[in-house]
Write a structure and sequence with these properties.
- The radius of gyration is 19 Å and the shape is globular.
- It has two domains: 2-58, Winged helix-like DNA-binding domain superfamily/Winged helix DNA-binding domain (Arc Repressor Mutant, subunit A); 73-253, Rossmann fold, CATH 3.40.50.
- β5, α8 (123-132) and β6 (138-141) form a beta-alpha-beta unit.
- It contains ten helices and 15 strands.
- 35% of the residues are buried.
- The chain has a seven-stranded parallel β-sheet with strand order 6-5-4-9-12-14-15, with helices on both faces.
- It is of the alpha/beta class.
C-alpha cells in the first residue's frame, strides 16, 4: 500500500509541480497522518519540499528514487525484459549487472547457469545472488560509496583495481531514459559508474521498459551506438528504431 501511495504522490507532483497538502490528501484519499509520513519520506530523498502548507516538487530529473519504489514500478514489464535478456548469458561468462531494478530481475535465471563470474554495484542484487547462487558462481561487488536509498555502490574513480584483472564479456545496464542520440541517468555518480563499465565491457545490453522512451536526465551516460542490443517490453516508434538501426543495434521486445 505504501509503495502505491508514494507512486501516486510522485505522479501528481510531476504533473502539478506545486500543490496544497489538503488538496493532495483529497486526491490520494489519505489521512493527514499517513500523508505526513509519506511526504517526510519523500522529502528525505530530495524529491519534494514542504513549505507553508504546500508540497513543491524538487528538480525531479536529478532525483534518484529509492530501490523499493523503483522495484514496484512496471514490475511485470521488467520481468518480461529479463526473461528475454537471459538468453544472452551462457556458462563460463563474466558479466556485469548494474544496480537497476530492471537488471535485478535477471537474478532468478542466473542460478541455473554454471561457472558465471558476476560483478555488480547493486547491494540487493549481490544479496539475492548470494542467497540463490549456483555453487559454481563467483560474485563480486564493486567498491565505492554506498548511495542512500538506491541500494547501490558507486565509484567516482573509473579505475577499479579488481575489475582490471577480468575481461567482462557482457554488461547489463538500464537507464532513466533514451532518445535518438543518447542514454540518460538521473545521477552523475550513477552515469559515471555505468559509463566506466560500458567502456571496458566487450558488449553491453540495455534493458528498459517503455516508460523510459524519450525520457531524459541531466546526465548523459553515452551515445546509443555503444550498445549491442536494446531489450524492452515493446518496440518504440520509428524514430527510435531508425536511430538504433543506423548503428546496427538489435532492438528486441516482448511484443
Amino acid at each position: 500500500m505504501r509503495d502505491e501511495r508514494i507512486k501516486e504522490i510522485t505522479k501528481i507532483l510531476q504533473t502539478k509541480k506545486r500543490i496544497d497538502i489538503k488538496e493532495l490528501e483529497r486526491l490520494t484519499f489519505s489521512s493527514t497522518s499517513t500523508l505526513r509520513r509519506d511526504l517526510m519520506f519523500l522529502e528525505e530523498q530530495g524529491v519534494l519540499k514542504r513549505k507553508h502548507g504546500q508540497v513543491i516538487l524538487s528538480a525531479f530529473n536529478t532525483v534518484e528514487l529509492s530501490h523499493s519504489i523503483r522495484e514496484s514500478e512496471h514490475r511485470r514489464e521488467k520481468r518480461a525484459i529479463a526473461n528475454l535478456a537471459k538468453d544472452f548469458i551462457g556458462p563460463g561468462m563474466c558479466i556485469y549487472l548494474d544496480s537497476s531494478t530492471t537488471v535485478y530481475e535477471l537474478c532468478p535465471y542466473l542460478s541455473e547457469i554454471d561457472n558465471l563470474i558476476i560483478f555488480t554495484n547493486g547491494l540487493n542484487t549481490a544479496h539475492t545472488l548470494s542467497t540463490i547462487a549456483n555453487p559454481t558462481m563467483k560474485i563480486f561487488i564493486t567498491g565505492g560509496e554506498v548511495k542512500h536509498h538506491s541500494a547501490s555502490v558507486v565509484n567516482y574513480n573509473t579505475d577499479n583495481s579488481l575489475l582490471e584483472h577480468f575481461s567482462i564479456d557482457l554488461a547489463f545496464c538500464s537507464a532513466r531514459g533514451i532518445d535518438e542520440e543518447f542514454v540518460y541517468e538521473v545521477s552523475f555518480s550513477q552515469a559515471l559508474a555505468k559509463k566506466s563499465i560500458i567502456d571496458r565491457a566487450k558488449e553491453t545490453i540495455l534493458l528498459l521498459d517503455h516508460s523510459k522512451f524519450y525520457q531524459s536526465g541531466f546526465f548523459k551516460i553515452n551515445n546509443i551506438k555503444q550498445y549491442k542490443t536494446i531489450i524492452s517490453d515493446y518496440l518504440p516508434d520509428e524514430n527510435l528504431l531508425d536511430a538504433a538501426n543506423l548503428y546496427g543495434i538489435e532492438w528486441i521486445s516482448e511484443e
